[in-house]
Here is the input.
Amino acid sequence: MATLSSVDKDSPRSTTDPLTLIDVDHVRFFVGNAKQSAFFYAYAFGFQVEQVSDLSTGNRQSAQYLLTQGNIRLLLETPLTTEHAAGAELNRHGDGIKDVAFTVFDAQKAWEQARRNGGISAYEPRTVHDERGSVTMAGIQTYGRVVHSFVSRTGGYDLPSLKQGGAFAPGFRKVENFKLNQFNLLHPCGLKFVDHCVGNVELGKMNEWVKWYEDVLGFAMFKHFDEKDISTEYSALMSKVMASGNHLIKMPINEPAEGKRKSQVQEYLDWHGMTPGIQHLALRTDDELSSVAELRSRGVEFLPIPDSYYESVWNRVNKELTSHGHSAVKEDHQRVRELGILVDADDEGYLLQLFTMPLQDRPTLFFEIICRRGSQSFGKGNFKALFQSLEEEQARRGNL
Here is the structure.
């Protein structure tokens, strides 16, 4: 997913279509303990713990921590009362992503248009403001527990100010003297922005949600993978990648496919209260080797890749690149192998990627670290190796 600078704000579409999406405003997590989760994401992934809204700022309903890195903004929220809706969700689903929020020019108009397109409201438009400006948010319900909020900002809360470290919204204060912030500035993990966001839905529901993204938000299909592309001897899944009109926002949607054993999507659903939701966030870096090395040094666990993978990957990838007139992979091959990084290529170039282990005890959320050298695909050539590694981990958990 890209940034504000990629949107032509003067184009006819952006000035007339209320569903023009400018950026990923933030990704909101519901977590059992936001203070402790903030420390984890700061230490393990190098996020800055920037701002907080809690009892000390007058928030009597929830504690919210804003974490930033590059153009990534994670909002970790924990309920402070038994009445808060997050409490029941945490009990049923565990920690996970509740909201993938989009910056728009006018949140109320975007919400109204999505409603006219057949979307169901998650919550009505609401505005908070003070002398610095205002933030308006409105939500539309998508699959399972997930919401898409539309966010429009004015004054000191506008997106350019937010990107420069400005206040997230009225009621937030800067976090002072958080020691890991300075450490992370000196030892960066190099994560830049959200590349894509993957959702898991029930068997037979993928096409229903593909149509929803087409009809309600005006997305179009970007890529399509079936069980022949993503499978092993034992399990499979199907996936369709939906993209906003300007291709800034990409939302792959997975569903399980029939197999001899349980797929990773079905495992997710089993441990997520049989409710669809976000399976993983892919975070972009400009230097895969540097980012993965730093993350590993911090204790981040990644899916293990067998040595046998590297016996054939370079011939496959470089053959694909040269056949389309591209240069071979420039990264050090031995270092790629040492770090356990996956490599794939297509007609546009190549990519490097690696997937973390689940980020909490339930196997329901992980991160992907991805670097693109021209390729805009999703690592199709790695699907089999990735699935075999996933199946080994599922077997260890007793969920295959």
Remarks:
- The radius of gyration is 21 Å.
- The chain has two domains: 4-186, 191-397.
- The domain at 4-186 is CATH 3.10.180.10 (2,3-Dihydroxybiphenyl 1,2-Dioxygenase; domain 1).
